[in-house]
Amino acid sequence: MDQRIQFDAELIRRYDVTGPRYTSYPTVLHFQENLGPDRYRLQAEVSNRTARPLSLYFHIPFCDTVCFYCACNKVITRNRRRSSRYLESLFSEIAMQGALFDRSRPVQQLHWGGGTPTFIGHDEMFRLMEVTRDHFALLDDDSGEYSIEVDPRAAGPDTIAELRELGFNRLSVGIQDFDSRVQAAVNRVQPKELTAATLTAAREVGFRSVSVDLIYGLPLQSVESFAKTLDDVLDFSPDRLSVFNYAHLPRMFKSQRQIRESDLPSVEIKLAILQSVIEQLTSAGYVYIGMDHFAKPDDELASAQLGGSLCRNFQGYSTHADCDLVGLGASSIGIVGSIYAQNLRDVERYGACIDRGDLAVFRGVELSQDDLIRRDIIHRLTCDFALNFDSIGRRYGVEFRECFHEELVALKDLQADGLLDLSPSGLSVLPAGRLLIRNICMVFDAYLGSAGLRTYSKVI
What we know:
By secondary structure, the protein is of the alpha/beta class. The protein has helices spanning 9-15, 37-48, 80-98, 122-135, 157-166, 180-185, 192-204, 223-234, 267-283, 300-307, 347-355, 369-384, 389-396, 400-403, 405-416, 437-442; strands spanning 54-60, 62-63, 75-76, 106-114, 137-138, 145-150, 170-176, 209-216, 240-245, 287-290, 293-295, 311-313, 316-318, 324-328, 333-336, 339-343, 361-366, 386-388, 420-423, 426-429. The strands form five sheets. Strands 1, 4, 5, 6, 7, 8, 9, 10, 11 and 14 form a ten-stranded mixed sheet that branches. The mean pLDDT is 94.
């Protein structure tokens, strides 16, 4: 597989529209509130017949300060009692969800996200893992992919050691930017020395993989300042990096209204930052996985991509395509069988529902045959940067060229622009098209006409 990436500023400007990130297909904009607990239970029962392994996602929504750029579902509070009440509800949900899935199904993946998962106390973290082990078949041999998102401001070396003791072997560290002016502008003051202590501790206690998150397009950033941040990050030699484009959507996310739009870098500066990022990371030996993600060539993500087993879901890129995903906690989304199912987003409503003894599933979507085919196409494009028409046809019992005649015609324009190569048997994305993979996927999206594209972020 050709993992090269080519930055073509003219192409990017021409194709820089808004569009989905395709962590799901259909996207959450098309979830319906007519899918509730009963349908979810039925799908869990059906999925048990497959004996597929499980992936668990836990949403811990609490932060003690707000980062102005953040678009996550979160609760800003310094009152630790709020998390205690939430955890009691979460423990109850774990028991209810655990009863739906056979204990013979091993948990190959586990992830705590937020918010700030380490907002909860050490005893609470141990209790949460203990309750999870009581109701799901966690692995004891460190062979699973058990990860947690960490804010260095809320996780010193002692906490990192305790997380490793709990069974976590992968760490995702939020940095965003080391420049002090940028940090002040987004209300996330995080000294480099603090981050270094967290990353050093993770290496010392044996975390198998360390990933860092950066954001370009934040206020007061320049090509030079972000290049300095990236140089400092590379000194830590992380296994993976996620370098996200900041999507400024203040009409949707209240905290973003604290950011002065006049401080945001221009489109030209953002593109120059992106170009610099690509040059820095590829020169340092990292490969572009896709959708803002980079990894060392010997990382499991890169190996899975080369082997054709990479997948994509709400947690980003993953090496476990064969898992059903169980979402736990407020706003979490599960993928069980042929449905997506999302829990109530408001923490209080979530807790009240669970405390009544009900599952908190309030909306989702059951995928049709057409949805399943298009989801497979989109995920193969985002993961493999290639598509084999006959393979898709055999898998679903369809004639690909007949079913997607209009899409194949539309792809010819993208081929003419050098984004991809079309052949009778399939398509392959060219290095100049890898950054624009969302545009290619949008050709196969049957829902775009019924969704307001202003709701999505820019593709670059």
